[in-house]
Amino acid sequence: MKEIYQLTAAEVQERVNSHPDGLSKTEVEQSRERSGWNELTEGKRKSVLQIFLEQYKDFLVFILIISAIISGILGDMESAIVILVVITINAILGTVQTLKAEQSLQSLKKLSGPEAKVMRDGAVAPIPVRELVVGDLVMLEAGDYVPADGRILENASLKIDESALTGESLGVEKQEDVIENEVPLGDRTNMVFSGSYVTYGRGSFVVTDVGMQTEVGKIAGLLKNASEKKTPLQVNLDQFGQKLSIIILVFCAILFGISVLRGENIGNAFLFAVALAVAAIPEALSSIVTIVLSFGTQKMAKEHAIIRKLQAVEGLGSVSVICSDKTGTLTQNKMTVEDYYVDARRIRAAEVDLNDTLQRQLLRYSILCNDSTNEDGIEIGDPTETALINIGSALGIEAAKERAQYPRLSEIPFDSDRKLMSTLHLMENQQGEQVYRMAVKGAVDVILDRASRIQTADGVREINAKDIEKIEKQNRDFSGEGLRVLGFAYRDIPLEDGGKLGESLANKQAPVLQMEDEQDLVFQGMIAMMDPPREESMEAVAECIKAGIRPVMITGDHKITAAAIAKRIGILKDFSEACEGAVIDGMTDEELREFVPQISVYARVSPEHKIRIVRAWQERGNIVAMTGDGVNDAPALKQADIGVAMGITGTEVAKDAAAMVLTDDNFATIVKAVENGRNVYRNIKNSIQFLLSGNFGAILTVLFASLAALPVPFEPVHLLFINLLTDSLPAIALGLEPHSRDVMEEKPRPMNESILTKAFLGKIGLEGLVIGVMTTIGFLLGYRQGGAALGSTFAFGTLCLSRLIHGFNCKSDDMILFSKKMFHNIYLIGAFGIGVVLITAVLMIPGLHNVFKVVPLDGGQFLTVCGLAILNLPVIQALKAARKGWRKQQK
User: Fold this and answer.
1) Is the dihedral of CA 796, 797, 802, 807 positive or negative?
2) Residue 632: its pLDDT value, please?
3) How far apart (Å, rounded) are the C-alpha atoms in residues 172 and 271?
C-alpha cells in the first residue's frame, strides 16, 4: 500500500472518508470511534508511595533494616534509630528525584495549540484540538500550530518550521503534488505534522492521523519504551554494596560464633556483632554520595548546566561518546551570511566593502527584495531573509532606512514553483536616470535561465557560456560546503518599454508587476549563508577528543550541510564518515553495532534512528551522552546514559526527558560538565577509600583480639560514635575536594570497570592495615597498663583520631605532606577540627565517660593515643611515595 504522501489529494480524501464540505456530525463520531481522541495517552503512573517504597529495594538497605529491627529488640534503640533515619532520608531524596523526572509526556501534551480552524458541515469554525478526527479539513495561516498530521490540499507559499521534529533549522517550503518515491520525514513536503508551526503563507490539509498515531505520538510511544540507564557509579555501588554486606555479615557471624564458644552472653555477643556490622557496612555511603553529587550540581549550575538527575553528574564523567544534535547545539541556530559572489569574485562576509558599487548594490537589493524585519533585536520572517538584513545592520546599513529611501511599489511574492521573488522600486540607473528597477532573488539556476546579461565592474554586458560556467561552479562549491545560496538579478523597465508594466507606467497607473516581467534579467551575484558553528564548538570538540571522548553528530538536516559543519569544527575528518539515516534502515542491530565506529555524522535521521545509534554505541560498551533540543531528540535523550537538553532553544519535552539542561545552549558547557563529573567521581572514590580503609582497620583490630583470645576492643557505643562522626564528616569533606583539570588528560574508564579494582583494593587494604596496626598497638598498651577497660579506651581513641587524620591521606594518590595541597580543602580541615574536639571531649570530660564507656586518661596516655594516630600520616605517605616509585620502574 502506498504511503499518504505518495497519493493524490483526491485519493487521500477517499482513503480517510473526507470531502470538500467537511465531515458531518455523524461522520465525526464514526471517525473518532476508529481513531480515538486527538491527544497523547500514557501508561499508568506510579503513586508517590510506590516510588518511595521502591527506594528500599536495595540489598544493603534491606540488611540495615534487619539490623535495626534486631538492635531494637535487643534494647539498643540508639543504633536502630540512627539506621532508620539514615535510610529514610535516602528514600525521600530518591523519591523527590524520581518525581521530577516523570514529566516528559505531560510536556508533549502541551505541544498542540488549543484550537484549530476546521471545515465541518460546509462551514469553518474553531474547535478544540482534542476534538479533531481523521478526515477533518483544517485551515492554516502564518503563526498557527499544526494540530495533527495531514496531507496538504491547498498551498499558498506555505512554510512550516519542523525543527522540533526533524532538526532542520530552515522552514520547509510545502507543496501539494504527489511524491512518488519513498522519502524520509523531512522530505515529505506535501505533508504537515503535529507540533510544527506555520512561519509563512497559508493553506489547508486533510487530517490523516491523530493522537498517538501522529509522528509526535510515535515519539511519545518511544519515550514510554525507552529505558533510562543507571550510571556506572549506581551499578558499581549496587554490586559493591551487596558483596561488601555479604562479606561483613559472614565475618560478623564467625565473630559471634567465636564469642559464644568463649562463653560470652549470647545477647551481648549478638549485639556486638550487629554493632560491628553496622559500623563496618558504610550505610552512610549513599547519603555521602547524594550530598557530594548535590554540591556538584550547585557548582555546575553556576557554569550553566542544570542537573535534573543527581547521578548524571558522575555519569557525565565517564562518558566516552557524545552524540550531538547539530541545530542549536553545535551551531547558533541562526542563519548567517558567509560569502558574497560579485563580478566573478568570492568575498567573505567580513570583507564586504560598501565603497565598492557592485557589493553595495547587491546588499541593497538583498534588503529591498526581502519581507523580514529586525527591530530592537526582534527578528520577524524567514531565517534566510533575516540573515540578509542582519549583515546590512552589521555593515551600518539599516533595512528600515533603505526601504524608506526606495519604497516597494509592486511585488511578486515567492512561491516554490517559480523559486523567485521580485519587487519594484524607483531608483537611478548607471546614467543617473530615474527608472523603475525590479529586484529579483531566488534559486541560482532559475535566475541563470532568465538572465540575458551580467553586471561586471566594467558595466553590463551579454552573459556568455564562460560566465555561466563560473557561476555554476561557484554555486556547486558553496553547496559542497553546506551553504544555502540565493541568486540576485535586476531589470530596468523604462517608460517606453512595450511590456505590460511599461504601459501601466506610461498611463501613470499604479505599477503592477507581472510574472512575464521576470525575463531578460541582469545577473548581479550570489549570497551564500549557513547556520554557522558556535565559536566555542571547535575548541570544545578538540577538548572532547583529547579527553578520549568520541563526538558524533546526529541531525535531521541534509548530509552535505551536516558534513560541512562537522568538518569545520573537527568532528569529521573525511566525508566518507558521513551517511544518511536511510543507510541504516536495512541493517540489523549487529550490523549497526559494527558500523557505528566508522561514522561521525548521521544526516536525515528519524527518532528511531537516533535511538538505534545510541543503543549500538551502548552495546559496544560505551557510556553515551546525547544532546538535543527538539521533540525528535527526546526518546534518544532518555535512552542515552546521559541526556543533555538545550535550555534556551530546547522544547519542554527534550528538557523533561534529559538528565541535564544547558542554560546557555553551549556545547562547550558539556566539556566543563565532563570535567566536573570526572572530579566528582574521583572525590567519591576518595570518600569510599576513606570509609573502607578505616572500617578495615577496625575489623583487623577486632579480628586480632578474637584470635589472640583478648577482650573485645570496642563497645557497641564506640562503633556507633565512629560511624556517626569520624566517618561521615570527613567522607563528605573529601567529596568536596577542589576540582583539578588534570582529570581531562585521562581516558574515560571502561563501562564495566568496578570501583573496587585491584589497585584500589590494594590501597584500601594497605592503609587499613596501617590503621589497624596503630589501633591494635594502642589497645595492647592500654590493656597491659589497666586491663580491658583502658585497652578499649586506647583503641577507641586511637581509631577515631587515626581516621580523622587519614582523611588527609585520601585527598590524593600523590604525596601531599607539608604541601599547599594538604590544606586547600577547608571542609576537610573543618571536619577534622570538629572530630578532634568531639573525641577529645569524650576522652577528657568526666561527665561523658559513663555515656561512652571509656575510662579517664592522664596526659601521657592521651599523648600516646594522639602519637599513634598521627603516625598514620607519615607512614601512609611514605608508602605512597614507594608505590609511585615502583610504578615508574614498571613503566
Assistant:
1) positive
2) 67
3) 73
Q: What percent of the chain shows pLDDT beyond 90?
A: 38
Q: Grid coordinates representing 70?
A: 534486631
| Residue located via cell numbers 519542523 | 162
Residue 165: how many other CB atoms lie within 10 Å: 26
The CA-based dihedral angle spanning residues 234, 240, 242, 245, taken in that order and rounded to the nearest 10 degrees: -130
Confidence of residue 45 (pLDDT cuts 50, 70, 90): low
pLDDT of residue 477: 93
pLDDT above 90 for 389: yes
How does pLDDT run across 519-535, given as a tens digit for each residue?
A: 999 999 999 999 888 88
Residue 80, CB-side half-sphere exposure with 13 Å CA sphere: 12
Cα angle vertex 595, ends 594, 600, to 5°? 130
Cβ–Cβ under 8 Å, residues 156 and 202 = yes
- Residue 746 banded pLDDT, cuts 50, 70, 90: confident
Place 891 in a pLDDT band, splitting at 50, 70 and 90: low
| Residue 128 φ then ψ, to 5° | -60, 140
Rounded Cα gap, residues 386 and 432, in angstroms: 31
Record the cell numbers describing residue 409, joined without a space. Answer: 511599489
Q: Assess whether 574 carries a catalytic annotation.
A: no
The radius of gyration computed from the CA coordinates of the chain, to the nearest angstrom, equals 36
- The winner for highest mean pLDDT among 507-516, 735-744, 797-806 is 797-806
Task: Give the residue ranges of DSSP H helices in 744-858.
Answer: 758-809, 826-844, 846-852
Helix (H) or strand (E) holding 477: helix 465-480
Burial 27-58 (b: 16+ CB within 10 A, else e): bbeebbeebeebbbebeeeeeeeebbeebeeb
* Residues 663, 305 contacting (CB under 8 angstroms): yes
Q: Which residues of 177-205 are buried (b: 16+ CB within 10 A; e: fewer)?
A: eebeeeebbbbbbbbbbbbbbbbbbebbb
Cell readout for 829 is 580541615
Single out the catalytic residue among 58, 76, 325, 557: 325
Position 104 confidence tier, pLDDT thresholds 50, 70, 90: very low
CA distance 655 to 306: 10
Map grid coordinates 566528582 to a residue.
Answer: 680
